[in-house]
Amino acid sequence: ELHCAADANRDQSYFLFSTTPEQLDYLRFPLGHLPTKGETRALAARYGLAVADKPDSQDIC
Fold this sequence. Notes:
This protein is mostly helical and 61 residues long. The chain has one domain. The protein has helices at residues 21-24, 37-46. The longest helix has 10 residues, at 37-46. The protein is globular and about 35 Å long. The relative contact order is 0.15.
């Protein structure tokens, strides 16, 4: 089941256009429920993940 991100300005579902149904069976996107990138970074920092300080990019995360 696929849902849009809570923050429509940060949604990256467009990259799924070339994803096959077989690939979708293996994909997991657990962060869509977080309202802001700041909350995502705070969660990463809480768990000691280096990605918490990674600068924004225009690529798929």
